[in-house]
């Protein structure tokens, strides 16, 4: 019986290269698993997927200590972490991880209310004020049951975007939440202030203060999602050349503004 047991292949007795291949298969990094789903009513709106669980994806790491050591960095890098509890503080959770695990993280979504928007002011140049964090995607999901006065934080978000680094893609998802003044209107005002601030900091400030990161943007009307993609800072050029470069973006913004739903709230029209 003992000889028979010893002849049975054991996972931990396999060469490390084979174990790595198995873990690569287990944590396949499904790009569609992002903590969001599309509403089942046919509206196409993006919503929080309450059935999504990063813990369930990471469960194989709990088999034994060796598998955890072998696969934790791979698993962390391929798993989307969705934080839907408003009272969880991500900096506190990150502080419990090894620096290598923090560096491995690539995708986080955070459900927010006004307290979280106030916290953006203290982030500095890194998400959650954590220098070791380098994300491919960061998604900010509006809490569905909260009243959101996003116009109160437009300037804060613009200031954050000018200096935020180590985030490749940033998205704001309405999540069917109530946004005072219309979500798309806020996104358009945000884009307008990005360009206004950029011009001011380049040509009205001495010495010029160019952004650390420039962003391209796109509003998805169907999903009610506003996505920004990080790009290198734009080169310093003379003002006339700059205005020619920025002109297509201004034209796109005007088209988007014209497509806004009419809202009687003056805050939606004056950007305050």
Automatic annotation (TrEMBL):
The protein's name: Uncharacterized protein
Species of origin reads: Cladosporium halotolerans
Q: Which PANTHER family match?
A: F-BOX DOMAIN-CONTAINING PROTEIN (PTHR42085:SF1)
Q: Which domain of life is it from?
A: Eukaryota
At the highest ranks, the source species' classification is: Eukaryota, Fungi, Dikarya, Ascomycota, Pezizomycotina
Under the heading InterPro entries, the entry gives: AN11006-like (IPR038883)
């Amino acid at each position: 019986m003992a000889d028979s047991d010893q002849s049975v292949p054991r996972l931990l007795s396999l060469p490390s290269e084979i174990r790595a291949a198995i873990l690569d298969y287990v944590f396949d990094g499904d790009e569609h698993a992002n903590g969001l789903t599309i509403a089942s009513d046919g509206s196409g709106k993006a919503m929080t997927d309450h059935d999504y669980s990063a813990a369930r994806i990471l469960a194989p790491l709990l088999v034994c200590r060796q598998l955890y050591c072998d696969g934790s960095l791979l698993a962390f890098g391929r798993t989307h972490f969705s934080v839907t509890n408003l009272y969880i503080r991500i900096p506190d959770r990150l502080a419990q991880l090894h620096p290598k695990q923090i560096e491995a993280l690539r995708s986080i979504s955070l459900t927010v209310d006004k307290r979280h928007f106030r916290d953006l002011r203290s982030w500095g140049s890194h998400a959650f004020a954590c220098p070791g964090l380098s994300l491919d995607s960061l998604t900010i999901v509006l809490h569905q049951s909260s009243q959101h006065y996003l116009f109160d934080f437009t300037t804060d978000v613009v200031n954050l975007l000018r200096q935020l680094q180590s985030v490749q893609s940033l998205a704001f998802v309405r999540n069917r939440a109530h946004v005072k003044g219309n979500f798309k209107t806020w996104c358009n005002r945000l884009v307008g202030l990005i360009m206004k601030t950029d011009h001011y900091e380049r040509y009205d400030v001495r010495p010029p203060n160019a952004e650390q990161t420039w962003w391209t943007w796109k509003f998805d009307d169907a999903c009610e999602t506003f996505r920004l993609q990080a790009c290198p800072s734009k080169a310093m050029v003379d003002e006339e050349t700059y205005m020619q470069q920025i002109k297509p973006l201004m034209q796109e913004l005007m088209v988007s503004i014209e497509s806004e739903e009419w809202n009687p709230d003056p805050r939606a029209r004056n950007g305050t």
